[in-house]
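User: Okay, second chain of the day. Same drill as before: sequence in, structure tokens out.
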Amino acid sequence: MKRLCGLALLAGLILPTIAVADAQPASDLEKALKVKSEANTLEKATEHAAAAAAYEKAVSFGLSAEYGLNQAIGNYILAGDLAAALATMKVLADSGYAGYSHFEQGEFFAPLRDQPGFPTVLALLKENENQQTRDKVDTASVLNFADAQRFFDAFGQAGSAEPHKKADIYNTHYFAKASPAMVDYVSMKVDSVEAFTAHVEANRLYYASLRQSLQELQRLAPRVITAMNRLRDTAGAGDLPKVHFIVGRHTSAGTASSNGLLLGLDFVTLDKTHASGLPAWTAPFLSTPNDSLWVILHEYVHFLQNTSHRTVLGNALVEGGADFLANLVFGQKSVPMPYTTFGNANQQMVIERFLAEQDKTDFSDWTGNNGKSYDDEWVADLGYYVGEQIARGFYENSPDKQAAIKALLQLEDPAEIMWISGFPR
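Assistant: Same drill. Structure tokens below.
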């Protein structure tokens, strides 16, 4: 689940919704991830021009153009080089990328909108969307299990290989054969092939059990399509996006890119017996195949949303709104998340802090903070909890329910949504 502000840039921005063309460079994801790591280091050191160039270099090796070029644009803006940012935006448009709402609406990108060539590049992105909208998606091919199946091929071969050869096996048989959607996932969520290999091999019994999860998801495929169609109809949306099941290293249970919904199969299990070696924060996010349908719907909402708001309130409505709409269509998850349990038990304290921080652009204590350690007075992802309450109140107080759902997707005015919701109640 997913996280442009400060050094984070676009690392967690759930980018818009139309597929990128397959014009991705010949992929060497292993090398691309190493250059991405260099770019991250430069970014943290506020050497933004150098970071932007490194992200572009990583794209030349096969890093997701959507992720890498958006990161480069953000760094060029922070470096004050708006001409380079616009030129990179043009390269992104020429690649077939069709997301444009963050450029057109996002506050961070406002300086770009004053550049003479901006309207032309924006028009190219919009034409890409129009073209992709004309290319209808075959509902029967919505679910993509091919990347996960390639993982198990590599996993099987790595089992009997000498330790120093295992990373090469995963790179050759899994990463080098990645679909464009998996390239997006790896670019955002995987640090290196070596780190991936070490994690998988240290938890082989757990990963072996995921074969059964894959089989169960394939059996549940008709239910997945039914649930997605219900949300599509509820939201008045167009064709379904593709859903890609990808095996990661427990960094993301689900996210979205313009190639579709990206689900971490490594979080879907029928057997937690061998989960003790996983990072402790992952425990609440491990779901059964049936509950993973809820995760798919949550990510589908992100795929439909305007996610350009970069305040505590705006981000809470992105994540909590996705929770609310998934609950509306599918029902509550069978096991409540820690942020729900904590929020219900400490509601007044959470509300008071939220109201004091709602306009801040640093929401790192509210969402995407599972890697942080907190004492007993706080837990991760409480933005989901507050955002769900606001979204639910807004929906209940709106006489036109269909219009309310569209408003929760468009998120044109988060403050007005909160006012109508009656929050806090």
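Residues 3 and 144 are 24 Å apart (CA to CA).

User: Thanks, on to the next one.
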